[in-house]
Amino acid sequence: MTLQLKDRFGRVHNYLRISVTDRCNLRCMYCMPEEGVPFAEPSSLLTFDEIESVVKTAASMGITKLRITGGEPLVRPGLDSLISRLSAIPGIHDIALTTNGILLAQQAEALKKAGLTRVNISLDTLDPARFRFIARRGDLKRVFEGIEAAGRVGFDPIKLNCVLLKGVNEDEIPAFLKLAYEQPLHVRFIEYMPIGHADESWRNHYLPLSAVLDKARAEGFAIERREDVRGNGPSEDWRLIGGRGSFGLIHPVSDQFCSRCNRLRLTADGHLQPCLYWMDELNVRPAAGDAIALQKLFLKALDLKPENHEMAAKLADEAQSHNPTERRMSQIGG
């Protein structure tokens, strides 16, 4: 009989996000400081054997979906071999990847052959100069090449993750909607979250996603709700009537979806996190290879998981009931 990962609030968990590195080839303004953060030593990262051990136990407890994240996961050497090993684990039916796309063109085919199911590609602007401003390095052309390669090898759906930043890129909402109308892409607008830095800069750049629907209607797009996007998770999805693609809204701050949360996170340095926002985490490395010990850690993580994240309290500068994480997004795995 398969154990079920149900927490004390009745939420059943079937989704594990796995960070394979905290390193990244960009320095996006909403993810880490321009100077970067202290990176973990390679020896402190979970090995592929350890990750496989954790996933085997997770799958025996009802995990069916994985997402590989970072940092930038494609900077971890041999990622296709890890995908191949994870895709062979009984019970794992879906393996997705979140990437900034810079290295995707070179690796897309190998990842697809290894068993990767889907890709989410971060794309916060369609303007090369603004890309350099937001990402602080890198070449937007290489991201577009990665998107093209993803389509060429057959990844479906291809999702583009756009973090909206007030005063930075909200004027591009119509351009992103036009992109989704003209191409078979699913653009997901994401609210800027206070992960590891709930400072005035975050408050100044935070933008609720009601702005997207207002802009879509003002630009003359006919839209309707869509419920059939594969792997949509917390996204509120919309169809652009007459178009080839669609768009989604992920608004963890203004309209939290904690009551439907079905995910746990494994950091690159081996900590199981019940919630993206809070400090609580459990070290899995001492238990790697021991299925019983790992099962106990997963069950303990569920006991620690709070009912909600309280990010909106940070926006209002209100007191919170737990201690928010001090890790930046790149150190957790988005």
Protein described:
The chain contains eleven helices and twelve strands. The protein is of the alpha/beta class and 334 residues long. A twelve-stranded mixed sheet has the order 7-8-9-6-5-4-3-2-1-10-11-12.
Question: How many E-type strands?
Answer: 12
User: What's the story with the biggest beta sheet?
Assistant: 12 strands, mixed
Strand order of the biggest β-sheet: 7-8-9-6-5-4-3-2-1-10-11-12
SS summary, helix count: 11
Question: What are its keywords?
Answer:
334 residues; alpha/beta; twelve-stranded mixed sheet; 11 helices; 12 strands; 17% strand
Short summary of the structure?
The protein is an alpha/beta fold and 334 residues long.
Topology diagram in text:
Blueprint: E1 15-19, H1 48-60, E2 65-69, H2 79-87, E3 94-99, H3 104-114, E4 118-122, H4 128-135, H5 140-153, E5 158-164, H6 173-182, E6 186-191, H7 200-205, H8 210-218, E7 223-226, E8 236-240, E9 246-250, E10 263-266, E11 271-273, E12 282-283, H9 291-304, H10 311-315, H11 329-332
Parallel strand pairs: 1-2, 1-10, 2-3, 3-4, 4-5, 5-6, 6-9
Antiparallel strand pairs: 7-8, 8-9, 10-11, 11-12
